[in-house]
Amino acid sequence: MSHLKHVIDYRSFLNENGITCTTNQTKATQEAFIRSLIMYNCKMNDSFHFSDNVCEGIWKQLDLWNAVFPINARFILESAKSRLGEMHKQLSRCGNLNNTSLYEVVFDTETIDAEGNPVPGKFVATENSFFEVLLQYLYKELVAGHE
Fold this sequence. Notes:
By secondary structure, the chain is mainly α. Helices cover 63% and strands 10% of the residues.
């Protein structure tokens, strides 16, 4: 099975929760790809830096993923590199990760109450089982080296 099923399931979940803009769905989906690269590098290489050898393998996997479902591979890899650098700086400076909420994908939503009035709200697209399943599947594909 390909990650495509999980991408479709996740985007359907977003749609059902009022996140219908494809740009916002792409932003939320890309976050799973970014986090999977970070997980892979930290678990497999125990590093805050992507070595040239690791990058070569990641580019191959990004290319495989892109062949199945269009992704912005350069943005995803550069975001993962940048985030790892930020995490390393924070840990080196103060020993913990401050403000990890910066990496949450949150959207403004609006529902209608019983009287027909709009009620503003927030939807955290990265805190649900669909996101987690997609993230874990992408990580497993990275480890296995296949699409």
